[in-house]
């Protein structure tokens, strides 16, 4: 069967691989759409330390069940539109013991630590297959990245009395904006791109701040009665945005970090103590986050087409990846249509 493979730095090719043999507890999925994630771009650039080349990328899935194994429960049937939970969990580490399997110490994500879903078919354990209600497979490819943002909002314990800043309006940040707005919070989107900020307001942000052209500190004080935001969610992964989060959050506020900073970050650690901050990491997503995203997308209010920057055939994927690398800030999601 046809698959997309990254054999080395700045390389991508179409390969033929053997079909998987299904186990009795597995479901065979026919892939319809698979999204390229930021981690896939990092892999292609040779900057993803968790990846061993060559690798088949992809973990943002919109698929149809082709076949089910003998031990698969009856609620999963051929023809169903589904997505998947692309993470593994060992069941033995501290995270798993604490029922936070999304942060498993030994997690292997599709397309990162193991071969992913950029192929025509993939067999997965039935527990990892998530029915997608009345959604179409194209929309399903947006579920996983949005669920990461939804999970960050859970980690932040956002409520309707909070002012929440989301730094970074990519797909994950948009998920955090949507979930915060659904919880009734006042949401402030922060980014360097005015087009993304406009879309963030369409998706639930009350205010938008261009961090490149505006005085962020002054604007946040103005929008929060001089207190600063109760919650800041960092969804960029850079030293300046990490520092901004700690500097600008209110006293006794919560900072939730999704992005991986590529360099060491220096902090005024006095703010950790003086403000009595809660600084929390947020990794991947839990099953309830996937369900929450599906529930939101079923409403039909999400501007799905505006979140999909390109829809390409497998043969067009190398060119699409090159174009993304040249203008990373302008891309939400590139979907590969099998």
TrEMBL record:
<dbReference type="InterPro" id="IPR013149">
    <property type="entry name" value="ADH-like_C"/>
</dbReference>
<feature type="domain" description="Alcohol dehydrogenase-like N-terminal">
    <location>
        <begin position="23"/>
        <end position="132"/>
    </location>
</feature>
<dbReference type="Pfam" id="PF00107">
    <property type="entry name" value="ADH_zinc_N"/>
</dbReference>
<dbReference type="InterPro" id="IPR050129">
    <property type="entry name" value="Zn_alcohol_dh"/>
</dbReference>
<dbReference type="Pfam" id="PF08240">
    <property type="entry name" value="ADH_N"/>
</dbReference>
<keyword id="KW-0560">Oxidoreductase</keyword>
<dbReference type="InterPro" id="IPR036291">
    <property type="entry name" value="NAD(P)-bd_dom_sf"/>
</dbReference>
<dbReference type="InterPro" id="IPR013154">
    <property type="entry name" value="ADH-like_N"/>
</dbReference>
<dbReference type="GO" id="GO:0016491">
    <property type="term" value="F:oxidoreductase activity"/>
</dbReference>
<protein>
    <submittedName>
        <fullName>Sorbitol dehydrogenase</fullName>
    </submittedName>
</protein>
<feature type="domain" description="Alcohol dehydrogenase-like C-terminal">
    <location>
        <begin position="172"/>
        <end position="297"/>
    </location>
</feature>
<dbReference type="InterPro" id="IPR011032">
    <property type="entry name" value="GroES-like_sf"/>
</dbReference>
């Amino acid at each position: 069967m046809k698959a997309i493979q990254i054999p080395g730095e700045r390389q991508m090719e179409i390969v033929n691989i053997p079909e998987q043999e299904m186990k009795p507890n597995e479901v065979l999925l026919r892939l319809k759409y698979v999204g390229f994630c930021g981690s896939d771009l990092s892999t292609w650039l040779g900057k993803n330390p968790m990846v061993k080349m060559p690798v088949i990328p992809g973990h943002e899935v919109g698929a149809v069940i082709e076949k089910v194994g003998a031990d698969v429960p009856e609620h999963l049937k051929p023809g169903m539109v589904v997505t998947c939970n692309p993470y593994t969990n060992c069941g033995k580490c501290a995270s798993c013991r604490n029922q936070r399997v999304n942060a498993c110490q030994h997690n292997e994500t599709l397309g990162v630590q193991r071969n992913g879903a950029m192929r025509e078919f993939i067999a997965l354990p039935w527990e990892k297959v998530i029915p997608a209600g009345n959604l179409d497979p194209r929309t399903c490819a947006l579920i996983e990245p949005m669920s990461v943002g939804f999970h960050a909002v859970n980690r932040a314990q956002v409520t309707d009395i909070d002012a929440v800043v989301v730094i970074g309006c990519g797909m994950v940040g948009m998920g955090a904006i949507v979930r915060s707005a659904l919880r009734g919070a006042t949401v402030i989107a922060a980014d360097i791109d005015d087009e993304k900020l406009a879309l963030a307001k369409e998706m639930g942000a009350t205010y938008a701040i261009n961090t490149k052209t505006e005085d962020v500190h002054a604007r946040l004080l103005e929008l929060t009665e001089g207190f600063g935001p109760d919650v800041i969610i960092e969804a960029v992964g850079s030293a300046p945005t990490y520092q901004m989060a700690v500097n600008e959050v209110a006293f006794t506020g919560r900072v939730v970090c999704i992005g991986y900073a590529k360099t060491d970050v220096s902090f005024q650690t006095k703010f950790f103590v003086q403000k009595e901050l809660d600084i929390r990491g947020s990794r991947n997503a839990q099953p309830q986050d996937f369900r929450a995203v599906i529930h939101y997308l079923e409403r039909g209010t999400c501007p799905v087409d505006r979140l999909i920057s390109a829809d390409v055939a497998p043969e067009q994927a190398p060119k699409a990846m090159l174009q993304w690398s040249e203008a990373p800030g302008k891309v939400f999601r590139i979907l590969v249509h099998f």
